[in-house]
Each structure stands twice: as C-alpha cells, then as structure tokens.
Amino acid sequence: MNNKKRHFYMNAAEVMDKTIEVFKKSFFIQIAYNFIVSMISSIIMFVAVFVGMILFVVAGISGALSSFSWGGVIFLIVLAVFVFMMLMALQSIGNILLSNEVFKGKKPNLGKTIGTAIKKLPAIFTVLVAQAIFFLPFLGVIALIVYGYVMAVASRDFTYISTARVILWIGFTTLNVAVIGMLLAIFYALTILSIPVCMFDKKYFFGAIFRSIELVKKDFFRFLGTIVLWQITILIFSSSLSAVLTLAQSILGIFMSNQTAAIISVALMGINYLITMVLGVIVAPLSGIFTNVMYINRKIKCEGYDITLYLENEV
What we know:
By secondary structure, the chain is mostly helical. 85% of the residues lie in helices and 0% in strands.
C-alpha cells in the first residue's frame, strides 16, 4: 500500500486549517526559535541604549550637544529601523523554514534553522528594500487621502452640529479609513510571498516582488479575501481574552464598592498585560507559517507543485 502523502490545492478554510495544523506540529520549536530571536533583540536593544547613554553623557561633557545636528538623529533613526527590520525578518525567516519542513513531513532542526536564517538575511534585505520602494506609490496615494481629509475637516464650520452632519462625517471618515485599509491590504497581498520566493526560488530584490505578483495575480481577490479573513480571525483570537477581562473590570465597578473594585481592577490589569504578552508570543509564529502555506498553495495552483512534493517524498 502506498502511504505517501499527496498534496492538493486548498481553499481559504483549508489554508487556515493547514496553518493551524503545521503550527501545532511545530509549536514548541517555533516558540523556542522566537524566544531566541527575542533574546537577541533584547540584547541588541540593551547594548544600543547603553552605548547611546554613554555617547550622550560624553557629548554633554565635551560640549558636542551645543552643535546639535538633525543629520545625526536621522542617521540613528534609520539605523534603528534597519536593525528592527532585520530582527523581524530573522523571525519570519525562521518561522517559514520550520513550517516548510513540517509541511513536507520532515523533522525540523532548531540549530540548523538558526544558521540558515542568518545566512539568508542579506538576500532578504534586498527584498525588504524592494518592498519599501514598491510601497512608495501606495504611500503617495495614502498621503493624498489623508491630506484631502484634513483639508476637508479644516474647511468645515463645526459650530453647528446636526445628526445628519455627524452621520455624514462618520460615513466620510469610514470611507477614507476603508480605502487606506484596502490599499495596505492590496500591497500586503501582492508582496506577501516575496520572502518565501527569495528563500526557495532564489529571486532577489524586485525579482522576488514580481515573482510574488505572478503567483497571486490569478484569483487575486480570492487570495486577498483569504488574507483578510485570516487577519480578522487572528485579531479576534488575540483580543478575545483581553475583551473579557475588560468587561469584567466594568462589571466589578457596578456591583462592588469603589475600593474593592479598584483593587481587583488593578489585579485584572496585570493579568490582562500578562495574557497579552503570552498571546503575542504564541501568535507570532502564525504569520510566517501562514505565509509559507499560502506560498506552497499558490505553487500547487500555478505550477503543479504538488507533483514535486510527492516526488520528494518518494525520494
């Protein structure tokens, strides 16, 4: 009997189910990898703050602060953004590598994954630069929308407020936010596969962006809908427990004395903070896993990648 696993093109529900399945199978190693990356991030942040404080004190003593330069501040901001992007990319690369191994039925290795992720960072950096450049037209449109909204608000007289005007402005504001959200979602959908494309197809810079667009352009709006549905699901999951605790705080304020309610409310705030941190750690790998599952699914749809996966299992 042939027990080799066959892969098929998945719909939105199946993609999300597969993401959770891969996450469950790689839960502990994903959390361990993210913990290591978080430790690295914390060390870098501590060193950066420590060095920055020393430089600030030295500059103050030597009188260098008197010749304050915005160029230096801008350089430090750009450097901080670069380091942050690299650390986020390192986390995403590891999550994708681990989920890719599990998806193919292999047993991932944490040490090997860390080494591979670090080696792939320079290539991923070219993709991040390409994404930033590709985002500029979207940013321009968003800036125009925001500018138009601000000008519309500034030109209106709000001394007289009626129900109709309030409803009109709520609708106008909602429309602007929806358009901006849709632009961000379209950009994300077009470029979401660029990192796994860089890692596995060896496409760099704009080549990875164009390859990602090539994979998603067919059935694009269905692809976009899957992403939006997934993000909404994660948002609901992440905020559900916090919402329950917030509701509990409000109820306590009604039925208990002010002093008792205040004490319990502080305790609930602490619990809420801890839950938020724990959920953040748990949810973090899901983004990379979902991206990898979507990448494989599109390859199956567009290129018959399921045959390649089957032959790899045979070998």
